[in-house]
Design goal:
The protein has 178 residues and is α/β, with parallel strands linked by helices. The protein contains 5 helices and 6 strands. The longest helix has 15 residues. It is globular, with a radius of gyration of 17 Å.
């Protein structure tokens, strides 16, 4: 996989020029002045990680934040954005240092955290982790969103679904080439 960081307008692939996806890159990476929108232009799926923040105008995008940008359990929300919102493009945004990578290694910390912070008993916390961690664990951030884009493209063949990568060190988006 190759990451293509966009640092100038002419680096945005031609097919994304003057599209909602191209504007997303312009707002985030190039500091484009925020335009005014009255309805969403695209759907953004990104990780729930608190270290990421997009620089976009109000009303520009539907945003679904879930661990690892995993939409497997949010497809009704995707369908809503397409059917009711008229969305034609979806940006799936992975990021470096994602907590959903190697989630099983965080088992003890997760269980102890639920016991200490939420007041759960240990057996309930263990059962919760073991039931859900396999559904949300990912191996590699970029590979996961590429695979997720391919899966969703089959489900929504008229919708353009594009995997992107967010770098925590500079808050920039890159295209992912597989």
């Amino acid at each position: 996989m190759q990451l293509i960081k966009i640092t100038s307008q002419d680096q945005i692939p031609q097919k994304y020029q003057n599209t909602p996806l191209g504007k997303l890159i312009e707002y985030q990476n190039l500091g484009k002045q925020l335009d005014e929108y009255h309805s969403a232009q695209l759907l953004v799926s990104m990780c729930m990680d608190n270290r990421k923040q997009l620089r976009i105008p109000e009303n520009f995008a539907y945003i679904i934040r879930t661990g690892g940008a995993n939409l497997r359990y949010s497809e009704f929300k995707v369908s809503y954005a397409i059917a009711i919102g008229g969305i034609k493009q979806v940006a799936l945004i992975a990021h470096d240092c994602c907590g959903m990578v190697n989630l099983m290694s965080k088992r003890t910390q997760f269980i102890d955290g639920l016991v200490q912070n939420a007041g759960w008993d240990k057996s309930r916390a263990e059962e919760h982790f073991l039931n859900y961690a396999p559904m949300f664990e990912i191996d590699n951030e970029a590979e996961f969103v590429v695979d997720e884009a391919q899966r969703l493209s089959k489900k929504y063949p008229k919708i353009e679904i594009v995997p992107l990568y967010y770098s925590l060190s500079d808050n920039q988006l890159s295209f992912i080439l597989s």
